[in-house]
Amino acid sequence: MGKRDGAIVVEGRNDADMKIVSLVLAACACACAVAEPAINQIRPVSNRPGRFLSLPNPQKCANRPKQFSFRGHNYFFTEHVPELAGKRYDWLDGRNLCREYCMDLVSMETQEENNMIFKLIQQNDAPYTWSSGRLCDFKGCENRPDLEPKNIFGWFWSANREKIQPTNKVPAGWGYNPWSQTGHKKQKQPDNAEFDINGTTESCLAILNNVYNDGIAWHDVACYHEKPIVCEDSDELLNYVASTNRGIRL
Ligand SMILES: [Ca+2]
């Protein structure tokens, strides 16, 4: 793993072998993310160690639900897929469900994409959903002065390892700060509030729909909570499956 122009990177070149290395390293990075030592005895069970990222299933990738698209990426919301409606996923299970389809949890790098996802939440009166946003607080995130303080500079999109802009101001190119100005502790997000309750770090980025009378906004939330999810095409996984399955139509 290394650093590349502000990205939190698992190295990958364009050839298939490097893609495999990249995928394996990505799996390691995520497993490390959930394999932190328990903070205390009441740590929720779904933070159990030893979970890994799923590899894509070529058939599922070829037949993935394409409910809407934005800038060349397809998306689906589990509540709109008959066999997935009503199901809830913790953050890692959510990533893995998406990854089987050559997708990942949604990453809102731009205001336009964020507005699209906020509108989806609003129109469906969904209480919340996950994004791929993750706090870099696991093995591999040490000795990175550029990520400190973590609550401002330590967030990234797991789907592509791009940094999330500093949490304490309106992102460049945006007209508003997507992080909520309030939460459990009546403080602006991210606030790591659950750590004070049961010792569990709020390491995952959720979109909550007016849970704190704050409209639709980003919150740091402990990763074991279960939510319906939005999946977005993963260029990395689509390219990997395309390069290893000659003639496949994705
Ligand atoms: Ca929070």
How many strands, what sense, and barrel or not for the largest sheet?
5 strands, antiparallel
Give, in spatial order, the strands making up the sheet with the most strands: 8-7-6-9-10
* CATH C-level label: Alpha Beta
Poorly predicted runs are: 1-43
Order of helices and strands: EEHHEEHEHEHEEHEEEH
Domain C-type lectin: 70-232
Protein name: C-type lectin domain-containing protein
InterPro entries: C-type_lectin-like, C-type_lectin-like/link_sf, C-type_lectin_CS, CTDL_fold
Keywords: Disulfide bond
Structure description:
- This is C-type lectin domain-containing protein.
- It comes from Exocentrus adspersus.
- InterPro entries: C-type_lectin-like, C-type_lectin-like/link_sf, C-type_lectin_CS, CTDL_fold.
- Residues 70-232 form the C-type lectin domain.
- Keywords: Disulfide bond.
- With 250 residues, this protein is α+β, with helices and mostly antiparallel strands.
- The protein has a single domain (2-244), classed as Mannose-Binding Protein A, Chain A (Roll), CATH 3.10.100.
- The chain contains seven helices and eleven strands.
- The strands form three sheets. A five-stranded antiparallel β-sheet has the order 8-7-6-9-10. Strands 3-4-11-5 form a four-stranded antiparallel β-sheet. A two-stranded antiparallel ribbon has the order 1-2.
- Strand 7 (155-157) and strand 8 (162-163) form a beta hairpin.
- The longest helix has 19 residues, at 16-34.
- The relative contact order is 0.20.
- Bound molecules: calcium ion (CA).
- Calcium ion is lined by residues 183, 189-191, 193, 202, 219-221.
- Calcium ion binds next to strand 10.
